[in-house]
Design brief:
Strand content of chain C: under 5%
Radius of gyration of chain A: 21 Å
Oligomer: heterotrimer
Largest sheet of chain A: 2 strands, antiparallel
Shape of chain C: flat
Largest interface: A-B, 67 and 64 residues
Structural class of chain C: mainly alpha
Distance between the termini of chain C: 45 Å
Order of helices and strands of chain A: HHEEHHHHHHHHHHHHHHHHH
Chains: A mainly alpha (about 475), B mainly alpha (about 240), C mainly alpha (about 80)
Number of helices of chain A: 19
Number of helices of chain C: 3
Strand content of chain A: under 5%
Number of strands of chain C: 0
Structural class of chain A: mainly alpha
Number of domains of chain C: 1
Helix content of chain C: over 70%
Strand order of the largest sheet of chain A: 1-2
Radius of gyration of chain C: 14 Å
Distance between the termini of chain A: 19 Å
Chain lengths: ~475, ~240, ~80
């Protein structure tokens, strides 16, 4: 018997999302506390599930039918870890989300709970079609949230996201149909064991379809044109959610398609090249940006490319680096988006050049500096380990040209973040309103996590030692 | 130039996919050769998944309609997800159309008497048909999704015939929430009673009878109400944009 | 050629024509109606392929609700594509 059912991570947000309209009829003031409470409960359950998954993988059978017949949730140590990150980031962002004033609030809270539920489902499920269903849940919740501001920018971003996202979903569906047509099963491990029964041509087409489809959500190079507009037009809390929740769920789904289902090793150079192109274009275009949120969005593309590169290099070290990078990016980018939200609110503009001296208030400045340094990969923060391990993995596999491109892109990254730091800490700016508790508490929480695990990364490395089983097709 | 390039890419994608789809067997094939593997108990079987559904479906779920057995019982969790997708679509439309809701409606021409009378007459019958489809989901073809869609199209008829018709949004939201809570509640109840989420914990009864198949009719009624009210809500939100 | 193949072939060709019309025509209202025709033919095909439940859904959603929603949307912009 299982002590804590992972399905609760999906059922609880869903239950409360359905309950919110009824609560909203009586009182609109309690809504934000209900949402934060729900996500806090979810985080506790995620912690328990994670602790249990560290010992042995959890299989939660749904409906009481044995796996290939019914659906099973499959939580290994890495899945539990990513689920914990997603729920933790969701909890901290929901504190910032309490500040949301724009109507209709009920719908905002429902959509954000369902985004969390979809991301959880994508990470936990062990069934390929179920993965598609949760991909749909996540992406449709994202479309609604991206257009929440109801201005022209929001609509433009959401429309781009809708078009690319639906093309991506269609490709995923085609891939699943091809696999089912050949094997008559949808369970991931069942597919993995019987993969050599498939026709080789169909196998490659199915893999490419799934790869492209999840690539949209994971911000891969030719399919990421939606990212800047969507991140820019969405409310600030929603941009933080995209960076730390749905993008992480997408890249983890991609990792499972590559390693758990197909166990491809000889096609991985393709993934590396896609990854390095993503890094390169993301960072170069980010340098040219003048608006803070667009710059962060392009930087987010670059970071996702690094994760993709780490997955593509495929050695234990590089994949460990990729998972570390997922953790550090989820924390640091959410921090930066929340900080950007405050800065835009305080200066009434998105132009970075007009944000002189905004970081002089220590409540904003210190977390901002920690977040930026972590993104850049400075040693005492968590961002360092991810980048370092990906680089070391690349060296050991002999991808020298790619490492050179990666380092060049990193230099560009340093340049544009340094430019922003210079403006933010410059003297002689105006006096800005001091941040509210709902702004600086999440910032400080993220900063504390970044510093603690940066100084003492041993627990994370213990978790990541399970990468070896993950690479050989384990859960 | 762009058009030609787009056309070339489309043709290429079509060829690649068509070459893959050629390998899909169509029609009557021998299902016995697809033997599945159970990763949880680590056992290989001589059975294929679709064959198992056809042979054992009626016995294991109590549902006469095998499609329903697969949709609601074997893969009920996917159905919960799909219901959520529709819920999200309706919520998203409601959230985007929110600013327009308060605006006053323009005076519009009435439809003629024939249309008004006919839709008034048909409205009840279409609702009855929709309800029939989802109540008998475990016995006859159809189920919650078609039934809900039929109900929503009956409301669409009223919207077309009476320009001033307006379904109360609050009531739609309440129906939507209660139906969703029923679905998740049944799932959680199964978790507590039997240890499996969405477990079919009610007695199966006799096959082909209305009261059979355990929780399947309960879930399908909830899905039907939910889909009906959500699609009506989407139509209502779209109609509300009228300046 | 038996009747089944003949009927499906005619339906598929009609569907292809309607789909091309929907993509190419400059009048958005006609394009929406052509989309409705595609859905209707798909629903008939589903019925022929012995999936009556899917046919009901496709007919009421594809040919009914989504067509109506598209026409409402066209009412708020211009009818002719530029």
């Amino acid at each position: 018997m299982i002590a804590v059912h992972p399905v609760l991570l999906i059922a609880i947000p869903l239950f409360f999302a359905f309950l919110l309209p009824l609560i909203g009829l009586f009182s609109k003031k309690v809504l934000k506390y209900v949402v934060t409470g729900t996500i806090a409960l979810n985080t506790i359950i995620a912690l328990l599930v994670f602790r249990e998954a560290l010992n042995s993988p959890i299989f939660d059978i749904l409906g009481g039918f044995k796996p290939p017949l019914g659906i099973v949730l499959m939580v290994g140590p890495l899945g539990g870890f990513i689920a914990l990150i997603i729920n933790m980031a969701g909890l901290i962002i929901s504190i910032y989300g309490m500040e949301m004033k724009k109507e209709p609030l009920v719908k905002y809270y429902m959509l954000s709970l369902l985004l969390l539920m979809g991301a959880n489902g994508m990470v936990l499920t062990g069934d390929l079609f179920n993965l598609f269903v949760f991909l749909e849940v996540t992406s449709i919740a994202s479309y609604g949230l991206a257009a929440y501001n109801k201005d022209l920018k929001g609509f433009e971003g959401a429309l781009k996201y809708v078009i690319l996202g639906s093309i991506g979903s269609t490709f995923v569906l085609i891939g699943i149909a091809l696999i089912y047509s050949q094997l008559r099963t949808l369970n991931m491990l069942d597919i993995a064991t019987r993969l050599n029964e498939m026709d080789p041509y169909v196998k490659i087409v199915a893999f490419t379809s799934l790869f492209l489809g999840f690539g949209v959500e994971a911000e891969m190079f030719p399919l990421n044109t939606w990212v800047p507009e969507t991140y820019d037009g969405a409310p600030h809390s929603v941009s933080a959610m995209f960076a730390s929740m749905s993008a992480k769920a997408g890249i983890f789904a991609l990792a499972r398609v590559i390693f758990t289902i197909f166990a491809f090793t000889n096609y991985l150079w393709f993934v590396v090249i896609m990854g390095v192109l993503t890094v390169f274009f993301g960072e170069i275009i980010a340098y040219a940006q003048r608006d803070i949120k667009r710059m962060l969005a392009y930087s987010s593309i670059g970071q996702m490319g690094m994760i993709l590169m780490g997955l593509g290099i495929g050695t234990t070290m590089a994949v460990e680096g990729a998972f570390f990078q997922m953790f550090s990016h989820a924390m640091a980018k959410a921090l930066l988006f929340i900080a950007a939200g405050y800065m835009i609110y305080a200066t009434q503009t998105e132009k970075m050049s007009e944000m002189k001296g905004i970081g002089r208030n220590p409540l904003i400045g210190i977390p901002l500096l920690i977040g930026i340094l972590s993104i850049l990969g400075m040693p005492p923060f968590i961002g360092f380990y991810g980048k370092f391990y990906i680089l070391m993995g690349g060296f050991s596999e002999g991808y020298y040209a790619i490492i050179a491109l990666f380092l060049a892109a990193s230099l560009v990254e340093v340049a544009y973040y340094a430019r922003f730091i210079k403006i933010a800490f410059e003297g002689g700016g105006k006096r800005y309103p001091s941040p509210k508790a709902t702004v600086y508490i999440p910032l400080l929480l993220f900063a504390v996590i970044i510093v603690i695990f940066g100084v003492y990364p041993k627990p994370i490395f213990e978790i990541l030692s399970h990468v070896t089983t993950f690479l050989t097709g384990g859960v | 130039m762009k058009r030609i390039l787009g056309g070339v890419i489309a043709v290429l994608i079509f060829i690649v996919l068509a070459l893959a789809f050629v390998h899909i067997p169509f029609g009557n094939i021998d299902l016995a050769e697809y033997h599945y593997y159970n990763p949880v108990d680590n056992e290989h079987t001589q059975d294929s998944v679709p064959q198992h559904y056809l042979d054992e479906g009626k016995k294991e779920t109590g549902s006469t309609n095998i499609v329903t057995a697969v949709v609601v019982d074997y893969r009920g969790f996917d159905t919960l997800g799909e219901v959520t997708v529709l819920f999200l679509a309706s919520t998203g439309v409601g959230s985007i159309m929110y600013i327009f809701e308060k605006e006053k409606r323009r005076k519009v021409r009435r439809a003629n008497a024939v249309v008004e009378t006919a839709s008034k007459l048909l409205f009840g019958f279409i609702i009855l048909f929709g309800a029939y489809i989802f109540v008998h989901g475990h016995l006859t073809p159809g189920g919650g999704f078609p039934g809900g869609a039929v109900i929503a199209s009956s409301f669409l008829l009223l919207y077309l015939a009476y320009p001033r018709f307006h379904a109360e949004h609050k009531n739609l939201n309440i129906a939507e929430s209660l139906a969703g809570l029923t679905f998740v509640g049944v799932g959680i109840l199964g978790l507590f009673l039997a240890g499996y989420f969405l477990y079919n914990f009610l007695p199966f009864g006799l096959p082909t009878y209305l009261f059979s198949a355990g929780v399947i009719p309960v879930i399908y009624v909830a899905v039907g109400v939910k889909v009906g009210s959500e699609l009506t809500g989407i139509v209502d939100a779209m109609m509300g944009v009228r300046e | 050629m038996d009747l089944f193949t003949l009927v499906s072939l005619i339906l598929i060709i009609a569907m292809l024509i309607a789909a091309v019309v929907a993509a190419e025509i400059k009048d958005l209202l006609s394009a929406a109606i052509a989309m409705g025709i595609v859905s209707l033919i798909v629903s008939i095909l589903f019925y022929i392929l012995q999936a009556p439940d899917v046919a009901i859904t496709e007919a009421s959603i594809g040919a009914g609700l989504s067509l109506a929603i598209m026409i409402f949307a066209i009412k708020h912009t211009e009818r002719w594509e530029k």
